[in-house]
Amino acid sequence: MTKRKTEYGWSIDMSGRDTFGLNATYNGKGLTFSQWEADVNESLAIRAGLGMDDFASACHWDAWNDGTAPDDWAEQLLYEEGLY
Fold it and tell me: How far apart are the first and last CA of the chain?
């Protein structure tokens, strides 16, 4: 595995495949961005019947990369839209 900086952020090359960090872990707990996204979507669906796609202007990648917990990110998205 090699890690290198790209114009899109850090890229991790695993088995010759560029993943742009999708296989990197979040907060040391082993969540990939896809798993984290599913947890955020589940939390949003339970709280407000919405999903991450309903908040297109938010920087989801940055929240994941910064180690924000899925439930905390869902709450922040709803709060910023005045829905929580």
Answer: 41
